[in-house]
Design a protein that fits this description.
The chain is mainly alpha-helical. The protein has one domain. The chain has a two-stranded antiparallel sheet. α2 packs across α4. The longest helix has 17 residues. The protein is globular and about 40 Å long.
């Protein structure tokens, strides 16, 4: 994705948020190859900070087992848990610190048994 595409995407997402709608962003930008959490991109942090919109981290457990990368159909009877965490407000954060704190909260929950 080149810089112009990214800018256009951010503008379109910002318009949705300004209309009071919610958006879902997968901050890793792709499905994991190994099942481990990947690097977070800061797109969500830029939108959150610039528009003063809180981020609601979401933890998804079991998705890799149910639908590993490279497969087209989910495995039957695999359990997937989705958990919404407390919102993170963007004030007093840089793009980088907001990205890092959201990743830390998601990672912490993924590592809980």
């Amino acid at each position: 994705m080149d810089l112009n595409d990214l800018k256009t995407s951010l503008q379109k997402l910002a318009e949705v948020l300004k209309r009071g709608k919610n958006i879902i962003i997968f901050p890793e930008g792709t499905r994991t190859i190994s099942g481990d959490i990947g690097d977070f991109k800061k797109t969500f942090a830029i939108l959150s900070r610039e528009l003063n919109v809180p981020v609601v981290p979401v933890v998804i457990k079991g998705a890799y087992d149910a639908l590993p990368r490279g497969t087209h159909f989910p495995k039957p009877w695999k359990k997937i848990n989705v958990r919404f965490l407390k919102p993170v407000k963007p004030e007093n954060h840089t793009y980088e610190s907001l990205k890092d704190i959201v990743k830390a909260k998601v990672t912490e929950q993924l590592n809980k048994k």
